[in-house]
Every structure is written in structure tokens, then in C-alpha cells.
Specification:
With 717 residues, the protein is an alpha+beta fold. The protein is built from 23 helices and 14 strands. The strands form five sheets. The protein has a five-stranded antiparallel β-sheet. The chain has a three-stranded antiparallel β-sheet with strand order 3-2-9. A hairpin with a 2-residue loop joins strand 7 and strand 8.
Length: 717
């Protein structure tokens, strides 16, 4: 029996060792596979990195070393007129101002409409309508709570600051990357009073929360075969760590210590798959290179993983052969040091991308420097020619006949008040000749100005966005004209804002929503919601928006049907925001307004409420009577005008009949007929003036009566 037990124990140990060896082989295979896949993405991105280096040189106003060598060899000017920086900075500032308002957020959460709610509302049954209203109010309250929770996450993670960095990357290099939600360990500090000693002590609490990260474009290696992030199957992110940071990785939960130790021992100088561009970036900005810059590449992989690979990395999963797993792997070189399941049940990659101008064939887009590459070259070339021509045309070219004169000091260099000795061989007026090089400054400067205009055209960033007014334009000297020009200049930025809404705002907020739905313990924030990206709504200039909001308020107030459909508190809040006033500082919250209305309704006695209702009814009756009097006055005026026109027509007809009778019966001469006609015309004119005077008196009397009635009197005279 003892021998059988020993054999079974030996078999178990051998089976365990075999399983451990199999898992180590799987782990090594996973590391080699990811290492090779990362190398493929790095190689596929080399051309983009070359373009980014050119963009950075252009932004900083630097020539390449080869260009500088050619200029020095030719002896030409090497000045660089940088028109790219202003354009890029204007794009960053304007886009940040639009997308990140100080008094509002560029996103929102609304409950999704449920079909049964609309059916119940149309059923006509009061009970069902009340139930639908309660469900809708509860959904709206949960949506506001979820929005507040995500807004708190963004505030803790400094969303605005990181979003501005992302916008800067997209304007400069064409692509900006935001990562989230990522699990971060935050420390909360609070001062508490010790009940025993009575002294205040600081308490530090650690909590895991969803955070945000801005990923350097240089460290972002997505699936290069994909054209959009929706098509990307996986993403690699590179992080350069020193030896101290590498050792600190051992403190992370789930790290395989043996694999981390192998990575440090096998690659003591740091292992690199991609090119370290830091020296090139330092050279562009004029910073000396660092020789002792030993760094390890820590690669973070997000994408599909096999079940066995996750188990080999120590991840506990449900062994379902039909399930495709999405996870994260950290590896250095070919050594996997940690793996985990994607915390989002949707399996979405935690990366969002914004492009200044999208490239239909790639995840990476184009930035402002790339779009104005040729105008910048033309501007720099034209300015170098201006400087070269200015140097040549600044003074004359001197030709000296050495047989005619010789310098007293023995130096042939020209200088003021220099003494020359005549040889007497040729006349002195033939010893020196001065030739002036023509100055072409005006023609060359016109080329430079054309390059500036071409930069405006190709980037769709007019000078107005850089703070320079458009002089001479229609209406440019008036406030409304400048406002119109600003609104028109904003049109060119709408595509960039829409790219940010679609690429960053909507997917990022959606992932935070999924995170809270999966992991939050607060049931009051959970529901079926829609993510609303509102970056495009702030494109309307504040003044124009304010005018539209005020006009909308007047329209709604003048129509009872519109008034019932208007959310007055929300409308007033938007009016306050359009005036660039912090709404939270001057407006009460909705709960306070509802409570005050309730208290006001309870404090008002029933008798006073009845009197107020009677007063409102009298006011309405007075308005109706006023409108009735106006209608009657208009009808009477129209009737009198018709009678006057009819009377005038009858007089004209009688006149013509009388003329005909006179012509037939009395056979009057033409002169007599004209004299008779003049008399009758004078009579008719007198009667017309008399009738007009009576009409004017009647209208004045009626107007005075209406004015008297408006003042509250029921009689006149």
C-alpha cells in the first residue's frame, strides 16, 4: 500500500511538472508571437515616423542637416521664416476653445426612448400616463446621476488637460490618442479629529478608479492593416522604462516575477524593437543628446488571446472552447510578465483616436504642418532669396585696375578714407568702377505673400483665427460684421470637431458608461442611456447663440402651445451660459426650484389662490374685449373706405353723364365745354376734400376712443 501511494505521488509530481513545463512553453510561445507581431507593426510605421520628423522640423523652423550643408556650401542664407508654428498654434487654441468650454462639458447622457412609453402615453388612460411619466422621470434622474459619476471620473483624471494634449498631437502630427478607462490607484487624503487626543490626523485611503491617459503618438502601434479603430484587431503601446521603473513592476498585482527577472538578466542594456527617436527629437529642439539613456521597452498588447495562453500567464478563466477572449499582455522582449482579461465585457480596445484631417487608408491622419508643407517651402525659399538679394544689392561691386593705383597700406580691401597711390599709367577716373546689383525685393516679397495666402487656402485656417482682423472686407469694421466673419471662419473647423466627437468623445464616454454598468455598486446610476457628443454645438458663436436663444424664448412665451412644450429652466440656463457666465454660480439647481415651488404652493391660502385666479381671468377677459374693439374698429374703417370709394365712383359717373348730355342738347363749343368741365371738376374736388376731412375726423375720434379704453376708461369726450 505504501508503494502504491508513493507511485501515485510520483505520478502527480511528474504530471504537475509536465503541466508546468507546458505552460512555460506556451508563455514563451506567446512572448515570441507578440514580439514578432509588434516588430511587424513597427516596420509598417517607419514611413509615418519619417513624415512626423519632417513635421516637427517644420514646426520648429529647422532645416535638415543635408539642407544646411548645401546652403553653407553655396554660401547662401539659411534663415527659416516659420509660418507653420502660428498656424498650428491657432488650430490647437481654437479647437481647444471649442471642444473644452470652461462652463460646460462637450458631452452628455440621455435616457433612450422606450417604445412602451409612447404607447402608454397615447392610450388615454390616466393611470398609464402617470406610470409612464414616473418611469421617464426615473430614467432621466438615473441619466443625470450617471453623467455626474463619469464627470467626476473625468475631473479626477484631469480630462481637459489631457484632451488639450491630444488636440496638440493631432494638430501637429495628425493623430492624437486617448486611453481609458484604465485602472488607477488613487490616494484620498482627509483630516480627521482623533476622539482620544482631540488632535487632527491625516488619513490616507487608497481606491481603484477608472482613469484616463494621453498616449504619445510615437508610442502608439495599432493594427497597421486597419483603416479605422473599429477595424483594428489589436493595439500595441510602447513605454520606455529605466531600471528603477522596471523593478517597480514587481509590485503590480499579477506580475510573473520569474519572467521579469529573466527580462532584466537577458537584456541588461535594454531591449528595443522600435527605433528610439528621442535623440532626433532633442536635436530638432536644440537639446544635447543623452549618451547614458538606457531604457527598456515595456510593450502593452490589447487584443484577442487564446484560452491556453491566458491560463499559462496565470489568468483564471472559464474554459469555454467557443469563447473568444480579449485581454491585455505586458511583455519585455520575448518575456511575458503579466496578462489579464479585458475589463470591459464589450471587448472594446481602450484607445480612442482623433485626426485633424483623416486619411481614408490609415488610422493615422494628417496634421497642419503636413497640409502646408509646400507653402512653407515656398515662403522659406522666397525669404532666403530676399536676404541674398538684399546682401548683394546693399552696396556696389567695385572693380579696380591694379595698373592704375596701389594701396598705401598694401591691402586691397576697401575701407573708408583709404589712401591710394597713382602709378600714372592710366587716368585716375579709369582706376575704379562701381556696379550696382538690382534690388528685386518687391517681386520676391510678393512671392512670400502668395505663399502665406496659399497656406491659408491649403490649411483652411485664415488669418482671422490667428487674431489678425480682416481689413477691408465687407462689414469688417462693425461688430456684427466681425461676428459674421468669425462664424464663417469656424465653418472650416467643423470637420475637425466632428472627428473629435466621433473618434474621442463618444467612444470614450461609452466605455466609461460600460465600466460603471459592470463594476459600480450604485444602482441609482444604471440604466439604458445614449451618449451625446456636443462638441459641434459650441461652434455657434456665443453672441449668435445668445440672440437665437432670446428669440426662441420670445417665440415660446407668445404662443401657449409652444410655452407648454418648453423647458424654461433649461432654456434660461443656456441663455446664461451663452453670456459666458458660470450657470452653477447664479442659478439654482432643479431640486431647489421644485422645493421652493412646493413650499410656495403650500404657503398660499386657498382664498388668495382663488383671487389670483379671478384676477387672471379678468385680465384675459380684458384682453379679449380689447382685441374685439380693435377688430370692430378695423371693420368700421374698412367699411367707411369702401363707401367713400363707392361715392367717388358715383360722382365720376354722374360727371361723365352730364358732360354727354351737355354735348348733345346744347351743342356747346369745345371751349365752352372745357370751361364747364373746369367748374364741375372744382365742385367734385371740393366734395372729395370734404369727404376726406370727415373721414379723418372719424378716424381721429376712433383712435382717441381706443386709447381711452386702453387706459381703463369706458367713455370718451
Amino acid at each position: 500500500m505504501q508503494n502504491e501511494a508513493t507511485v501515485e505521488m510520483t505520478d502527480d509530481v511528474e504530471a504537475e511538472e509536465a503541466e508546468q513545463q507546458r505552460l512555460e512553453e506556451l508563455l514563451t510561445s506567446l512572448g515570441g508571437k507578440l514580439h514578432g507581431l509588434a516588430g511587424e507593426q513597427v516596420a509598417a510605421r517607419q514611413q509615418l515616423e519619417t513624415r512626423w520628423l519632417t513635421d516637427l522640423r517644420q514646426y520648429h523652423g529647422e532645416y535638415t542637416p543635408d539642407e544646411l550643408a548645401r546652403m553653407r556650401e553655396a554660401g547662401t542664407s539659411s534663415v527659416y521664416v516659420n509660418i507653420t508654428r502660428n498656424k498650428t498654434r491657432a488650430a490647437i487654441a481654437r479647437l481647444s476653445d471649442m471642444l473644452l468650454p470652461n462652463d460646460d462639458r462637450n458631452w452628455g447622457i440621455k435616457p433612450t426612448p422606450e417604445p412602451q412609453l409612447s404607447v402608454m402615453s397615447n392610450s388615454g388612460e390616466q393611470e398609464q400616463q402617470d406610470q409612464a411619466r414616473e418611469i421617464r422621470e426615473e430614467a432621466e434622474q438615473k441619466a443625470r446621476s450617471m453623467q455626474s459619476a463619469i464627470d467626476d471620473d473625468f475631473t479626477e483624471a484631469r480630462y481637459n488637460s489631457k484632451a488639450r494634449d491630444v488636440i496638440g498631437d493631432s494638430c501637429l502630427l495628425g493623430t492624437g490618442v486617448m486611453k481609458g478607462p484604465v485602472v488607477v490607484n488613487r490616494q484620498r487624503r482627509a483630516w480627521r479629529e482623533d476622539p482620544n487626543s482631540g488632535m487632527h490626523v491625516m488619513e490616507v485611503q487608497e481606491e481603484y478608479r477608472a482613469g484616463l491617459e494621453r498616449v504619445e503618438t510615437w508610442d502608439f502601434f495599432p493594427d497597421m492593416s486597419a483603416a479605422t479603430m473599429d477595424e483594428a484587431e489589436f493595439v500595441f503601446e510602447r513605454k520606455l522604462l529605466n531600471k528603477k521603473q522596471m523593478r517597480e513592476l514587481a509590485e503590480l498585482p499579477g506580475v510573473i516575477d520569474s519572467q521579469l527577472r529573466k527580462a532584466l538578466e537577458s537584456d541588461p542594456d535594454g531591449h528595443h524593437i522600435s527605433n528610439d527617436r528621442r535623440d532626433e527629437l532633442r536635436a530638432i529642439t536644440g537639446v544635447d543628446t543623452v549618451t547614458n539613456g538606457k531604457r527598456w521597452e515595456l510593450w502593452e498588447y490589447w487584443g484577442p488571446l487564446d484560452k491556453d495562453e491566458l491560463i499559462a500567464a496565470g489568468v483564471e478563466i472559464d474554459e469555454d472552447p467557443l469563447t473568444e477572449y480579449s485581454g491585455c499582455v505586458l511583455f519585455v522582449g520575448e518575456h511575458v510578465i503579466k496578462a489579464a482579461i479585458n475589463p470591459l465585457d464589450s471587448g472594446d480596445l481602450p484607445y480612442s483616436v482623433h485626426n485633424w484631417e483623416e486619411d481614408p487608408s490609415s488610422i493615422f491622419g494628417f496634421g497642419v504642418p503636413f497640409l502646408m508643407r509646400n507653402p512653407q517651402k515656398v515662403a522659406s525659399s522666397a525669404w532666403r532669396m530676399i536676404m541674398d538679394n538684399a546682401g548683394l544689392s546693399a552696396g556696389p561691386q567695385i572693380v579696380i585696375d591694379k595698373t592704375a593705383v596701389k594701396p598705401e597700406d598694401g591691402s586691397w580691401k576697401m575701407s573708408p578714407r583709404k589712401v591710394w597711390l597713382s602709378t600714372g599709367r592710366v587716368p585716375l577716373n579709369q582706376a575704379f568702377y562701381a556696379y550696382n546689383i538690382p534690388s528685386n525685393q518687391a517681386a520676391l516679397y510678393s512671392i512670400f505673400q502668395s505663399a502665406q495666402q496659399l497656406a491659408d487656402t491649403e490649411t483652411n485656417l485664415p488669418l482671422l483665427l490667428q487674431g489678425e482682423g480682416a481689413s477691408g472686407g465687407p462689414g469688417s469694421q462693425t461688430a456684427s460684421g466681425m461676428q459674421m466673419l468669425m462664424n464663417n471662419s469656424n465653418i472650416v473647423l467643423r470637420s475637425a470637431v466632428k472627428n473629435f466627437d466621433d473618434g474621442i468623445t463618444e467612444p470614450l464616454v461609452r466605455r466609461f458608461y460600460d465600466w460603471h454598468m459592470a463594476y459600480s455598486e450604485r444602482n441609482e446610476i444604471k440604466g439604458d442611456f445614449n451618449i451625446v457628443a456636443r462638441g459641434s454645438s459650441v461652434l455657434i458663436a456665443r453672441q449668435d447663440q445668445q440672440e437665437k436663444l432670446l428669440a426662441l424664448a420670445q417665440i415660446a412665451a407668445s404662443n401657449p402651445e409652444f410655452a407648454r412644450s418648453t423647458e424654461w429652466q433649461g432654456l434660461y440656463r443656456e441663455i446664461v451660459r451663452s453670456m459666458s457666465v458660470p450657470a452653477d454660480n447664479v442659478l439654482k439647481d432643479e431640486e431647489t426650484v421644485k422645493q421652493e415651488k412646493k413650499e410656495q404652493g403650500e404657503q398660499t391660502p386657498p382664498e388668495l389662490q382663488i383671487k389670483m385666479a379671478e384676477h387672471q381671468l379678468k385680465q384675459q377677459q380684458f384682453e379679449l374685449e380689447k382685441q374685439k374693439a380693435q377688430w370692430e374698429a378695423q371693420n368700421a374703417q374698412q367699411k367707411q373706405q369702401f363707401e367713400q370709394q363707392l361715392k367717388t365712383a358715383e360722382l365720376q359717373q354722374d360727371r361723365e353723364v352730364k358732360l354727354a348730355e351737355l354735348a348733345l342738347k346744347q351743342e356747346l363749343t369745345m371751349a365752352q365745354l372745357q370751361a364747364k368741365l373746369g367748374i364741375d371738376t372744382a365742385k367734385i374736388q371740393t366734395e372729395r376734400e370734404k369727404a376726406a376731412a370727415e373721414l379723418t375726423d372719424n378716424q381721429n375720434s376712433r383712435a382717441a376712443k381706443e386709447e381711452n379704453m386702453e387706459m381703463g376708461y369706458d367713455t370718451y369726450g
